[in-house]
Amino acid sequence: MNVLVTGGAGFIGSAYVRHRLRTHPEFKVRVLDKLTYAGRRENLRSLPEERLELVVADVADRDAVRAALEGCDAIVNFAAETHVDRSIEAPGEFIETDVFGTFILLEAARDAGVRHLQISTDEVYGSIEDGSFDESSRLDPSSPYSASKAGADLLVGAFRRTYDTDALIARASNNYGPRQYPEKLIPLCVLNALAGDPLPVYGDGMQVRNWLWVDDFAAAIDTVLEYGDAGEVYNVGGPDELPNIEVVKRILELTGRDESLIEHVTDRLGHDRRYSLSAAKTEALGWRAAVGFDGGIERTVEWYRENEWWWKPIRSGEYREHYEQRYGSALG
Ligand code: NAD
Ligand code: DAU
Fold first, then answer.
1. 3-state secondary structure at position 39
2. Full residue range of the structural domain in which residue 164 is found
3. Candidate list 107, 122, 183, 222, residue with the active-site label
4. How far apart, in whole angstroms, are the C-alpha atoms of residue 18 and residue 175?
5. Are 107 and 253 found together in one domain?
6. Interval between CA 266 and ligand 1 midpoint (Å)
7. 18 and 58: one domain?
8. Is 229 a catalytic residue?
């Protein structure tokens, strides 16, 4: 399969492109990406140019999407506005990209007769106190971001039932690893710790997230793309659940900083307390997570330490404004 990867210049999309090109040397990848603040050409650096093409366009642009789909056998859709805090401040773009953009892609996939794999999130299920969500759990999103993702998932189901589109969904828990934009907890805290800046922890820091190494998710996506059944949902949960405060303390240890850098700040509105996904259905297709949190977080800190060229321009640009507006303090 030649694959159209929408949002392929972002954090997970680019990890998937890397994985796909490495594991399928006979096929090509075309990335369609708007290159928002989160999408970067640098994320696709050092990949075989003869098998990779980047089209800079919006997933909500019907003509651009149809043109980009020519010669492709499937769409894997990562394109989205992805940061919960930004969705609380300004939800409009989340509806435009995550919901309307998915609709444009579904129409194009239906008309071209190709598979559409929608990349979704555990956040569509909302928060869970005990146990884990499976694929039959009720959708109960809390934020404008997760509601937009749930809206897209419902469209995927509707296209499958109404038009018999070959569409399916992979829902993942929190990914971490190289090239994640530093608005998200782990890269934000790694970069702040390296710089000796405070690490902002929302509320009591006892919110639990289910961490998934990004390359493990990339492998799961290929498994679902190749072996998943049309119309089905596949949950891809990581192997480890940790309260945020433990994640932050682990980062401080790995960067040689002490806990005085921890700063408890105002909690996120509508903050989900715990996410947990059962990956049993995806595992039944033959996928297994290979990297646990202890090893993964060490590799992540190491990557940021060694790749200042990647994050230095981010810390001095749009991100600085976002940070100062959000946290009310300056980066060092
Ligand atoms: P990201 O913010 O790093 O990347 C998003 C990418 O989409 C960027 O390259 C951006 O330029 C592109 N994009 C945004 N709007 C676009 C538009 N209108 N048209 C074309 N491209 C556009 O996000 P990520 O963390 O890599 O997440 C990728 C996907 O995975 C998203 O759909 C997200 O909901 C989902 N997801 C993420 C996680 C996670 O932990 N990061 C977990 C589960 C699911
Ligand atoms: O669960 C999957 C989701 O994971 C994806 O669908 C989203 O696209 C992705 O952004 C991520 O959402 P979260 O809200 O869980 O990730 P974030 O890194 O923003 O926050 C992780 C936890 O850390 C959350 O409980 C909020 C908390 N947090 C976050 C930031 C940015 C802090 O305590 N301090 C912070 O400064």
1. coil
2. 3-175+213-236
3. 122
4. 16
5. no
6. 26
7. yes
8. no
